[in-house]
Amino acid sequence: MEQCVLAKRYPFISQKDDLKIDICAVVDLIVQTQLPDGAIPWSAGDKLDPWDHVESAIGLTIGGAFDAARKAYLWLEQHQLPGGGWHAAYKDGSVTDATRETNHAAYIAVGLYHYYLVTQDYSFLKRMWPALAAAMNFVLDLQGPGGEIYWAVSPKGQVDPMALLTGCSSICFSLKCAFVLSMLLDKPQPKWRRGYERLRDCIRTKPHRFNMTKARFSMDWFYPVLCGVFTGDEAKKRIEKHWKKFVINNLGVRCVSDQPWITIAESSELVLALNAMGDDLLARVLFGWIIDHTFSDGTFWCGFTCPDMVLWPEEKITWTNAVVLMAADALYDLTPAAGLFRHGR
């Protein structure tokens, strides 16, 4: 079983005296949870969804566990559906939700681009190109007249014409990464570029195209910044506008505004968004609030309630730990992909 080889891959990490997390413990959790066929469930015995599977693969790449990361992407190749998407959930080798979500399908582009930035493994990109192309075409086939991307196709094959701001923000960045990969492989896809531009403009100028009942979720607040739709002063204004709605000082970021539940993943993603827009000082402050929320083995909690500080859920979640690594990479430049989300800097 491949273990964390971070120090061997990136010996300069040992010089980061203020990086107070056990990176190898985090990577090893993901490696040990990964199934022999490459699948990475949320936790041992739990479900897998394609988006969080890719997020975990990104964590493996940051940790230098390249063989395990490749196995994760090859799992996607092997389980891709004829139309280019994936089922929404799998468990123990079986499909538990046959919905096909667009943001799930698109995220493979971010994972592969991240993998390439770290490894420069061009041959693996070539191997994965058919899966990437099919996924992005599946997504763009579900682009609406206003530029929004419909969120899913039902198990019965019916398109749900609802668009979600968080999902579309993620797709927007995925399309950007996919187009860059197409250029690297000398297979330019102008359709992808046009789809990206239409979606970006929709997010910026047509908020009515999205299901705003999700606005109580913090991701709807900062994902358009994380994914580069808003940069510069616009990004700062967006973050400042709802900071008090979602952030509890000295603790972290609420998952939803009306519940006293702080989540490590959303807190780490906001760190990435702050770093993306150039506010490294505030990003480091926020990161400092969450780095002590670990189990005895150094891996991170999923979330906790406040003010009573009840840990919930109790499982060790792979993708939560992966995004902590992504935040650490962005702040401390651990790998060549540290600047993946740095837009307009």
Q: Can you characterise this structure?
A:
The chain is α+β, with helices and mostly antiparallel strands and 345 residues long. The chain has one domain (6-332): Glycosyltransferase (Alpha/alpha barrel). Helix content is 51%, strand content 7%. It is built from 15 helices and 9 strands. It has helices at 6-9, 23-33, 50-62, 66-79, 102-106, 108-119, 122-140, 165-184, 190-205, 218-226, 232-241, 243-246, 264-276, 280-290, 318-332; strands at residues 89-91, 94-97, 100-101, 152-153, 159-160, 247-248, 252-254, 261-263, 303-305. The chain has a 4-stranded antiparallel sheet with strand order 6-7-8-9. It has a 3-stranded antiparallel sheet with strand order 3-4-5. The protein has a two-stranded antiparallel sheet with strand order 1-2.
Portion of residues in helices?
40-55%
Count of discrete structural domains: 1
What would the CATH topology be?
Answer: Glycosyltransferase
Instruction: Please identify the structural class as seen in this structure.
Output: alpha+beta
CATH class: Mainly Alpha
Tell the overall outline.
globular
- Overall average pLDDT: 94
Element order, helices and strands? HHHHEEEHHHEEHHHHHEEEHHEH
Low-confidence stretches: none
Number of strands: 9
| Number of separate helices | 15
Named CATH architecture? Alpha/alpha barrel
Query: How much of the sequence is in beta strands?
Result: 5-15%
Terminal-residue CA separation = 39 Å
Largest sheet composition: 4 strands, antiparallel
* Strand arrangement in the largest pleated sheet: 6-7-8-9
Radius of gyration: 19 Å
